[in-house]
Amino acid sequence: MNIQEKDILHKLSPKRTFIPLLIGLLAAVAIFYWTYEPSQWQYFREASLPALLGAIMVLLIRDGGYTARIRYLSQKELSWQGSLYSILLWEFASAVTPSVVGGTAVAIFILNREGIRFGKALAYVLLTAVLDNAFFILAAPLSIWFSKGEVFVGSFNETMRWTFLLSYALIALYTFFMAFGLLARPRLVKWLLMKATTFRWFKRWRKAAYQTGNDIILASREIKGKPWRYWLQAAGFTLFIWIARYATLNFLMETFIDLSFQDHLLVFGRQVVLWISMLISPTPGSTGTAEYFFTELYSEFLGSFSGTVGILWRLLTYYPYLLIGIFILPMWLRRTQQKLKTHK
Q1: Which of 54, 49, 127, 62 is nearest to 88 (CA)?
Q2: Rounded distance between C-alpha atoms, residue 63 and residue 85, angstroms
Q3: Of the four, 224, 245, 260, 320, which is 20 to 30 A from 21 by CA?
Q4: 101: containing domain
């Protein structure tokens, strides 16, 4: 995989924040227009400050978990400062690019500039993707089971159900394929990729398949021989991170309404469906798509106020990373320039 610095820096350009900000503003105006009712101010008057502070605290804990995980995966080759910069810029990159595009190249570039060799950076990025997807593969059926299928709601019940099942199957296939390649038989995976691209319909991807196979072999070498303790702690960090990520919304909703334990499980579970809708969104950072599906999924709890809470949720979990990225990117580029020259 050849990472072109100019192309990566273009993707990270602060100018790219204009599009998601514009889409977000239009989405907010549209949601307010269609869902606003004067009675909604009662929710703000009765809001729970401790629950709101809890949402902010859980969000910070999540970012701390991400920082600790990447430092642990790198076996402390990344400093705490470098780990934090990497996570914040990783979030920034996700915020300015569509989820369907993927951010592997950007993430590798970030770690590489922090002094991590290309092979190791590739291994850590692929490993985090496998770990995060593994959480989804396990959490999704549990969410459906605990909610008795109530994670699918409204007019999108059947459409979302089939979209979910298709996305789940593709994510599971990709994750098992990558895990098998990284942890067991990387050369067999490369052979399978090359074999698949001998067919007429797939020949156009033969070069990409060859490069992907080489990347998996290189990444596998870097993580080969790690003890069980390494994998168990990596899995523990991942579980902690995603629970904190989802719990942010539980605290935010508890700010405005009282939820039972079963309600909290349902709110938590529906985020799996929401995550799928965000994953297939064509807009940068799923702007607009996330707010719309949030309203569909949580109007059962909040009524017309769900649109407002959806906007608050994005103001808490999405837009800060746009601003943080704009602020720290120039400083980070200056800070890592010498490391990049040394470790290229």
Answers
A1: 62
A2: 11
A3: 245
A4: 5-343
**Confidence label for 62 from pLDDT (cuts 50, 70 and 90):** very high
Task: Determine the Cα angle at 241 with ends 12 and 332, to 5°.
Answer: 30
CA–centroid distance for 243 within its chain: 13
Predicted pLDDT of residue 78: 92
How far is it, in rounded angstroms, from Cα 83 to Cα 77? 9
pTM of the model: 0.87
Asked whether 306 and 298 are in contact (CB, 8 A), the reply is yes
How many whole angstroms separate alpha carbon 209 and alpha carbon 181?
A: 13
On the question of pLDDT at 3 being above 50, the answer is no
Q: Write down how long the chain is.
A: 344
pLDDT in tens, 312-325: 999 999 999 999 99
Handedness of CA 142, 148, 149, 150 (dihedral sign): negative
Q: Which stretches within the chain are classed as H helix? A: 5-11, 18-35, 41-45, 49-73, 80-96, 104-113, 118-147, 157-183, 186-196, 206-223, 228-256, 261-279, 289-302, 306-317, 319-343
CA distances from residue 241 to 60, 188, 245 in whole angstroms, order as listed: 10, 32, 6
Give the chain's domain count. Answer: 1
Q: Are 272 and 139 in contact (CB under 8 A)?
A: yes
In terms of C-beta distances under 8 Å and separation of at least 24 residues, what long-range contacts does 322-325 make, across chains too? 322/17, 322/20, 322/21, 322/92, 322/95, 322/96, 322/285, 324/88, 324/91, 324/92, 325/12, 325/14, 325/17, 325/88, 325/89, 325/91, 325/92, 325/93, 325/95, 325/96
Fill in the DSSP letter of residue 288. T
CB 82 within 8 A of CB 343: no
Contact predicate 40/304, CB 8 Å: yes
Query: Residue 287 in contact with residue 336, Cβ under 8 Å?
Result: no
